[in-house]
Amino acid sequence: RDINIALVNELAIIFKLLKIDTLDVLEAASTKWNFLPFKPGLVGGHCIGVDPYYLTFKSQTLGYSPEVVLAGRKINDGMAKWVVDQLILEMVRKDISIKSANILILGFSFKENCPDIRNTKVLDIVKILSEYKIDVDIVDPWVDITSVEKEYKLKVSDKVIKGKKYTAVITSVAHNQFLSMSLNEWEDLIEENGILYDLKGLIPRKLDTLRI
């Protein structure tokens, strides 16, 4: 599974350079009977993001370097940085001040409709954005807010602050609550000239959206 996601992540990076929409490619590919429905995104959690290292460690102690497994890990572990790099590039293109930006991240758990925050890669996005001195709000209706603060020293809300608008919104986890949001609700989150950055294919495609 880790390798499959890594392949799709690498394809998404290539498609971005080619100015091709990854969702369009996946939609076309899904018309084939043997299509495997893997999507690009962050790979965290206590299984996929960790267990391959046990295998590679054991392999290396036996004198074999597992190149494919490690390559997949390298790609998936680097996705958070790539995501932020794309966002910063888009902000520069749109002449948006980085230092005065405020960003909303929708989702903090490592997967959809799940409260588990172990090894969540959303944390990597938050850390990288903080290096740019960007203010970040995190909303996740599934996680235990107290646990997040205790484990990661971060504040998470269970719902969006009504009336607050953001420079950019990143959809990082496909919780049902976000999937059910209307077109108007997405528009209400963004400042004029703001950026909707869709990592999970959540945002209605009618809207001008930056995608993974």
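^ that was protein a. below is b, sequence first then the tokens
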Amino acid sequence: MNREVLGDVVSDTAQRPPEALVAALAADLARAPSGVGFIYDALDRLRTEYGLNDAVLVIQSPSTGRQAFRAGRRPVRGGWVSERVLRSPAGLYTDPVILQPDTAESLAHLCAVALRLDLLAHDATHDALTGLLNRRSFDDLLTRAMSRSVRYGWAFTLVIMDLNRFKELNDRLGHPAGDEVLRAVGRGLRSFLRAGDVAARIGGDEFAVILDGTDPEVGRGLAARLSTAAGTMLGWAEVAFAVGTATAPDEASDAARLLEVADRRLYEAKGR
């Protein structure tokens, strides 16, 4: 069984011009909804069209580090992959080897572009510091959730959370310490979220969460647990949350009004 790095050895077993596959995949990339999905589809297509035993792609970049993808979404540890591929430079590897180096490089480049597009899409919708959704993404999700709630009567609770005395902490300990507090909040919120819940950083020290499928009483209880869970991650005794909640569709019929109700309760809580 040939287990050399793709491009070092070229067999004569290929049944179709590989350039045609590269061209077809390049066209598919423009329509692909997911870069990672495109990579696995490309590897599976390569394996099927050329009767390969296996295909593995290794991508290395400053933004993603080293990542490996294997046809069939199989684990990349074990067998010939661990023996040879994971210790080798980034590139496309097959068993057996069937492509010229330039063709292999073109396929690897297409997949690297696909992964980069995924990262750009993530960066456009998420806050760089905390990894939570950004304000624009959250506003879009809240508008859609409100529309479903009004149309179908599906309840959800909006939670607005604000860090008390954050500016004092930032001024006293410096921005690096403040940034670490915000990152800890992000970790705390992600650890608490259930399937269907979403969280965002919507301002400097302000966060918002949509709790799916909750009535007002349940929403308030979850909001209290949410602030406790996020606060536990901080490790700063002097930092606490003020919380405001509003539940749709009972308390508002549009997103702006729901935000207004939650904001009013938030500032009432801060005043206390």
